[in-house]
Amino acid sequence: MGFKMGIVGLPNVGKSTLFNALTKTAAAQAANFPFCTIEPNVGEVAVPDARLDKLAEIAGSKQILPTRMTFVDIAGLVKGASKGEGLGNQFLATIREVDAIAHVLRCFEDGDVTHVEGRVDPVADAETIETELMLADMESIEKRLQGLVRKVRGGDKDAVQQERLLKDALAMLESGKPARLVEVDEEDAKAWKMLQLLTTKPILYVCNVEEDASATGNAHSAAVAEMAAAEGNAHVIISAAIEEEISQLEPEEAEMFLSEMGLEEPGLDRLIRAGYELLHLETYFTVGPKEARAWTIKQGTLAPQAAGVIHGDFEKGFIRAETIAYEDFVTLGGEVGAKEAGKMRVEGKTYEVQDGDVMHFLHSS
Question: Phi first, then psi: what are they for 134, rounded to 5°?
Fold first, then answer.
């Protein structure tokens, strides 16, 4: 399982440029006018993980299969999108389908690139988008509550639960805060997720800065960092223009270019890592002569469910998992060395898989 991140923002903030860089395609037309992205563009990228290459080298794996992440480039929202302004409604519907939102904010000054509001103020831009998502949620909730009246009167348990959660969300939104701030009990968690409210999506603010500020950020990105911290959201600093340039280079050239810019890694790596942390994801590996492969799971996933990511039958017939920590696998030269040193553990159904675990599942067919 990878995850799906929707790239949103006002027009002309660098969304499509970033998308092109991330997916190494020119599928999203980057142009200096609003709504150049008419259909949401979807791109799938491999998640870079140096550990996978190291495991493959040790095991002599013929093939390396990284886990994958999907980006959805959603056209520029504008003030009034919740009421259908611009290309509002169809894009609000697309946001419902993603796991998290990468909110691209313009943190650069450039007289040649028009800002839809005629000024550069990333914090105000963030508020504009959040307000539109909140208004869309409120409208959606009010319609759904009307549709539930008959079922609630009839005593339908699911409808009663849904009504209660929708009212909790509406109260939070009416107080001027996003629905993600509602405290949800464990028994309501599944029903809450099924509501698919826009403002329950985790947000990662992407500060799109000019090239010179790519390593350190600037005053605009500092203001976003302060806002993100106050909200409990994450932020990452990227120069979309640099990322697009890097995406066209050969690996060695890209490394040299990054070094010249004072950057240790491409923005893609930082963005994915921040996205993983935002969604509480982690990676485990399966390694052998045929292939070394990475698998994405939620933190706290138990061994049978982790096996189920590979195949549903592995979860149903789970017997046990032979597990080696990544560091032990590398330090001891692979599976044989780890076994001989007593570092291979046999784990059962209650084992919580850890990030970096190298696993082999035994199951009944």
Answer: -65, -45
